[in-house]
Design brief:
The protein has 288 residues and is of the alpha+beta class.
Length: 288
């Protein structure tokens, strides 16, 4: 009877620990506005384009999913490929600064830390939520990404103001990481890519998050293409669009996205340890 009570306690602790680790929204800036749409697409034989925006984690986290919202051509074209990449901040996972872009300070790294998609890499499934017809006031397209063959010193590409307005339909991508992404506490970049059956996916901007748990609390959106400025990145607002507010400060932008995941609490970890110890003790006593 006593041994049965120990194993019951152990299994109960493990059950409670698993229950308390339910996935929840850990970052949410998926509130799209009409300020800017950033082209982002995987390598489809034309030109890969990556747009990035940052997020902060204050504890070790297992990412289980994400959402992000973009503008697509009217008629809600089919979605062929969805890809999500996680980057660290330069100089992690990077070579030395090559001085071909204005700066790499607080930019995404050269190569991705983690990647998931519904195609070759795997580990991702998705669904879509079609929204209302809408417009974006400005766009950053492949041709807006400046890569001077002989950049000045220091490099200073002239902002071209973007490619102007675009009408279309909002489309939210709901990505499920069938292979979760484990990250330590820190500062990262979220890079979504979408390939449509017709036309391009423009990742919409969102409001500037107010999270100040990690410094710098929030950076701005970056973009690059390949072939082009890969492995470097340019700032969507500062380097490409270049618009300024009434105080003469360059306007920066953020992407509309959210993250879902599990952040183990100390009590959860303690319950798991207690459960494992209890079951282990019962197992040892049974052998005696």
């Amino acid at each position: 009877m006593k041994r049965f009570g120990i194993v019951q306690l152990g299994l109960l602790s493990l059950t409670l620990a698993a229950t308390s680790a339910t996935a929840a929204t850990i970052f949410n800036n998926d509130f799209p506005n009409d300020q800017v749409g950033m082209l982002t697409r995987p390598d489809n034989g034309v030109s890969e384009v990556e747009a990035a925006d940052d997020f902060s984690l204050t504890a070790n986290t297992r990412l289980t999913g994400a959402t992000f919202t973009g503008l697509v051509p009217f008629g809600s074209p089919g979605v062929k490929t969805v890809r999500v990449e996680i980057y660290r901040i330069f100089p992690a996972d990077s070579g030395p600064f090559d001085n071909k872009v204005p700066t790499r300070v607080n930019s995404p790294s050269d190569v991705a830390l983690e990647e998931r998609d519904n195609a070759g890499t795997g580990g991702l499934s998705f669904s879509i939520n079609a929204g209302l017809n809408n417009q974006v006031l400005n766009r950053v397209l492949n041709g807006d990404i400046v890569f001077p063959p002989t950049p000045p010193t220091p490099p200073n590409p002239t902002p071209n103001g973007g490619s102007g307005k675009q009408l279309g339909q909002q489309l939210q991508i709901v990505a499920n990481f069938t292979s979760p992404i484990d990250l330590t506490a820190g500062h990262y970049f979220f890079v979504p890519q979408v390939e449509l059956t017709n036309g391009d996916f423009l990742w919409l901007s969102g409001p500037r998050p107010s999270n100040t748990a990690i410094s710098p609390a929030d950076l701005q959106a970056w973009i690059r293409n390949d072939p082009g400025i890969n492995p470097d990145w340019e700032r969507v607002g500062t380097d490409i669009i270049g618009d300024k507010d009434k105080n003469g400060v360059v306007i920066t932008y953020n992407g509309a996205f959210s993250l879902q995941g599990v952040v183990p609490e100390e009590s959860t970890i303690a319950m798991m340890i207690a459960g494992l110890i209890a079951v282990g003790a019962w197992s040892q006593r049974k052998r005696v």
